[in-house]
């Protein structure tokens, strides 16, 4: 079964990091890495969310994410 949900955000994208944190994602320790995007190197923050929290959030996320698609 599902144990956790993993995500990533660019450290420089503070809004994305805050959004993930509001949902309950937490940074994976010692997991940051750097990637090249265009001509710059960006730091990527790996994030994880417990399966239990994902199950709580999923119905509201589905409604939010897919309501515009079905409109």
The SSE order reads: EHEEEH
Please estimate the helix content. Answer: 25-40%
Main sheet summary = 4 strands, antiparallel
Number of helices: 2
User: Any idea what the shape is?
Assistant: globular
Q: Report how far apart the termini are.
A: 33 Å
Secondary-structure content class:
alpha+beta
Tell me the number of strands: 4
Provide the β-strand percentage band: 35-45%
Average pLDDT, rounded to a whole number, is: 90
Low-confidence stretches: none
Radius of gyration: 14 Å
3D architecture notes:
The protein has helices spanning about 15-25, 50-65, and strands spanning about 5-10, 25, 35, 40-50. The termini are far apart. Strands 1, 2, 3 and 4 form a four-stranded antiparallel beta sheet that branches. It is built from two helices and four strands, in the order βαβββα. The model has no long low-confidence stretch (mean pLDDT about 90). The protein is globular. With about 70 residues, it is of the alpha+beta class.
Please name the defining characteristics of this protein.
71 residues, alpha+beta, 4-stranded antiparallel sheet, 2 helices, 4 strands
Present the secondary structure layout.
Blueprint: E1 4-10, H1 14-23, E2 26-27, E3 33-37, E4 40-50, H2 51-67
Antiparallel strand pairs: 1-4, 2-4, 3-4
Quick description:
This protein has 71 residues and is α+β, with helices and mostly antiparallel strands. 38% of the residues lie in helices and 35% in strands.
């Amino acid at each position: 079964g599902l144990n956790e949900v993993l995500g990533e955000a660019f450290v420089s994208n503070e809004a994305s990091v805050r959004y993930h944190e509001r949902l309950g994602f937490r940074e994976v320790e010692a997991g940051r890495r750097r990637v090249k995007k265009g001509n710059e190197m960006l730091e990527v923050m790996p994030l994880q969310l417990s399966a239990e929290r994902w199950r709580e959030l999923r119905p509201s996320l589905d409604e939010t994410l897919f309501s515009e698609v079905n409109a």
